[in-house]
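can u do me a favor
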């Protein structure tokens, strides 16, 4: 009996040993490889600025911000704007005039300098701007990218000339006298009275008490982007690939480190 038990135990042990020897671990689970592309780096760069400047809290659409920033980089690369003064101004005419739909952003500090009202042209619409024109005496706003020009004193006081950068959309801005100026109809009082801001002859007019601050901040060849989605607007300055390439060729290690 004892011999039989020992024999059985030996068989069990041998079988177990063979099982252990023949067992191989299952293949290691594959870890997804994160492919870092130029587009993903650029998108991260845009998002970082948007978040640091707290632009979501102020109501700026992230898609509009990306368009404006892309244009900024392409205008900078083309030598059309100041290399030192990295200020980007956005007026989003997709928003109601009662909203503070102008943003002035310092891209060196990733900070919002000012968020305020801005008027559109009287023939572009009432509370909302839905019509845009590049034609003289149309009294409509024009979409696209602008570069700020000279400061002068005119019928609206201290004002800032603009040069339109988008052929077919706003290149007639200087001929049309489309400028940044102060206007009393850009106020809470006008909103209370009319249910909307007053309107200009096509100029991005601001509150008179803010006009000096606005001009001092954005003057000197900086970018203004006027957004509106009710027209098939296109621009050579919205080339994301060129903008991304310009940012990434500067070896922005801080961008790559955040991936």
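np, heres the sequence
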């Amino acid at each position: 009996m004892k011999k039989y038990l020992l024999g059985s135990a030996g068989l069990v042990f041998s079988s177990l040993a063979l099982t252990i020897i023949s067992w191989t671990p299952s293949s290691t689970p594959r870890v997804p490889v994160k492919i870092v592309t130029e587009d993903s780096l650029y998108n991260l760069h845009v998002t970082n600025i948007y978040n640091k400047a707290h632009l979501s809290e102020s109501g700026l659409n992230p898609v509009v911000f990306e368009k404006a920033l892309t244009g900024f980089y392409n205008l900078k690369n083309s030598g059309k704007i100041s290399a030192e003064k990295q200020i980007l101004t956005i007026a989003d005419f997709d928003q109601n005039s009662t909203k503070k739909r102008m943003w002035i952003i310092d891209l060196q500090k990733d900070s919002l300098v000012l968020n305020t009202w801005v008027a559109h042209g009287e023939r572009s619409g009432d509370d909302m701007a839905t019509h845009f024109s590049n034609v003289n005496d149309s009294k409509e706003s024009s979409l696209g990218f602008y570069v700020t020009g000279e400061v002068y004193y005119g019928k609206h006081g201290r004002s800032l000339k603009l040069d339109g950068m988008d052929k077919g959309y706003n290149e007639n801005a200087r001929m049309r006298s489309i400028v940044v100026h102060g206007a009393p109809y850009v106020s809470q009082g006008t909103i209370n009275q009319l249910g909307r801001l007053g309107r200009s002859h096509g100029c991005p007019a601001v509150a008179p008490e803010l006009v000096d601050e606005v001009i001092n901040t954005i003057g000197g060849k900086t970018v203004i982007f006027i957004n509106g989605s009710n027209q098939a607007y296109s621009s050579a300055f919205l080339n994301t690939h060129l903008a991304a390439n310009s940012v990434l060729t500067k070896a922005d290690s801080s961008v790559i480190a955040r991936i």
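The CA atoms of residues 87 and 218 lie 6 Å apart. hope that helps!!
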